Amino acid sequence: MASENLSALPTHTLPNGDSMRIAVVVSRWNEKITFRLRDACIQTLMDSKVRAENIFLEHVPGSFELPLAAQWMIQKFNPDAVICLGCIIKGDTYHFELVANAVSSGIMSLNTLGKTPVVMGVLADYNEQQSLDRSGGSKGNKGVEAAFTALQMIELGRRIKD
Fold first, then answer.
1. What is the 3-state secondary structure (H, E, C) of 7-57?
2. What is the rounded average pLDDT for all residues in the chain?
C-alpha cells in the first residue's frame, strides 16, 4: 500500500464489488486502533457494493495470528481476497521487530501461493499516536486503503486470468 493518504478517494474510483467475496481478519490487540481500521475497511467494501453476506469477518487475538487465520479463511470461504488488519506498536523490547517480520513474511507466503490475494493492512508504528494518525487521523485510514487494494487486486486477477 502507498504511504500517502489514499483514504479520501472518491467512491466512484472504486471497483464494483457486487460479485466479490472478501474475508477480513482483524487483530484484537490494540483494538482501539484495529477496530477503526476494520470499520473503515468494511464501510469501503460496502461503498464499493460488496454485499454484506459476501464479507466474512473474523477476529484473532493478535497480529501474529493473522496469516494462519487468513489461510483458514481461504480454505473455508474461498474468497476473492483476504484483508489482514492489525497494529503492532514498538515497545522497549525486540518483540516488535519479531512480530512485524513474522506477520509480513506470513502474509507474503500466502500471496506467493498465487491463489488468493492477501492484503497487508497491518500498522507497524513507533508509537500509539502514529497508529491513531493512520487509523482515521491526520494520515487517513489504512483500513480504507486495504479495502481498496483488495478490490483492485481482485479486479486485476480477473482481467489477467480471463
1. CCCCHHHCCCCCCCCEEEEEECCCHHHHHHHHHHHHHHHHHCCCCHHHEEE
2. 91
Q: Determine the Cα–Cα distance for residues 70 and 75; give it in Å rounded to an integer.
A: 9
Q: Which of 32, 95, 115, 158 is labelled catalytic?
A: 95
Rg of the Cα atoms in the chain:
15
**Single pTM value for the model:** 0.91
- Going from N- to C-terminal start, the domains of the chain cover 19-161
Residue 97 contacts residue 104 (beta carbons within 8 Å)? no
- DSSP assignment, residue 136? E
pLDDT tens string 107-132: 999 999 989 999 999 999 999 999 99
| 95 assigned to active site | yes
Distance, in Å, from the CA atom of 108 to the CA atom of 101, rounded to the nearest integer, reads 10
Q: Is 117 helix (H, G, I), strand (E, B) or coil?
A: coil
Nearest Cα neighbor of 34 from 122, 154, 146 is 122
Coil vs helix vs strand at 62 = coil
How far apart CA 120 and CA 66 sit, in angstroms, is 10
Q: Which CATH architecture has domain 19-161?
A: 3-Layer(aba) Sandwich (3.40)
C-alpha dihedral (115, 147, 69, 120), degrees to nearest 10: 80
